[in-house]
Amino acid sequence: MIASPSTRRAILAVLVLVIVACLGTVAVIVLTRSTGDSLGDRLSSLEDDAVPGTDVSDNREQLLTVSREFAQGFNTYDESMLDAEGHLPEYEALSELMTPKFGGVFAEAIKFPEQTVAAGAASKAIVYAVGVASQDDDSAEVLVAGTIELTYPVPDEGTGAGDETAADPDGDDGRLSTGPQRFRYQVSLVKIDGQWLVDDVDDIDDGRPPFSEPAIPETDPGQTPSTTPPSTGPTEEGEG
């Protein structure tokens, strides 16, 4: 059966509308999901699945994730992490989040948490907030806020510090606790081979240099400076 002229015109009109709708959809996709100055660049970006803002979002998420994991792991260690040689391999693995330079400084400071854990003490950090303070192509500053709690075994009776009332009633096995102590870190990161890595950390509130820089002890005028090197490891308040 041959379609009448009116039917053919109706079918043609529908096809034209479908083509116009398809062209409109393509135009919207090119304008909203592509990058580049020319039409060719925009089409190429779509072919490569390059969606505007994706890299920025991915970078930001990686910065927040690395900074959170670092700050929490940096101040979390206990006896369960000790190996047979008295080391903290799980804690040492935190260096995977660091640049080689900062990882070297961190390796030198690991003896402090090892000694702390060997004495029966433990540290636990909880991160509550993370935010990017500044960022460019290969460096960033991230602010991290949270709490650190240190716990200690109750001293034996007769040591002069065995008052049971000093124990934290909510602590594990009646251990002594400092209670949650707030911290604020500024974490410096650099991008190496596409990966954001921690390059330094500074406790904003402790008035001391960043972790990678040795602290200079204050002395009174005329006082002989101490020959004991300052500690470069986390302090009992978890300061960097």
Top keywords for this entry?
single chain; Nuclear Transport Factor 2, Chain: A; elongated; 240 residues; 2 domains; alpha+beta; 6 helices
Folded structure, characterized:
The chain has 240 residues and is of the alpha+beta class. It folds into 2 domains: 5-47; 68-203, Roll (Nuclear Transport Factor 2, Chain: A). Helix content is 34%, strand content 21%. The protein has 6 helices and 5 strands, in the order H-H-H-H-H-H-E-E-E-E-E. It has helices spanning 5-33, 39-47, 54-74, 89-92, 100-109, 111-118; strands spanning 122-135, 139-152, 176-177, 181-192, 195-203. Strands 1, 2, 3, 4 and 5 form a 5-stranded antiparallel β-sheet that branches.
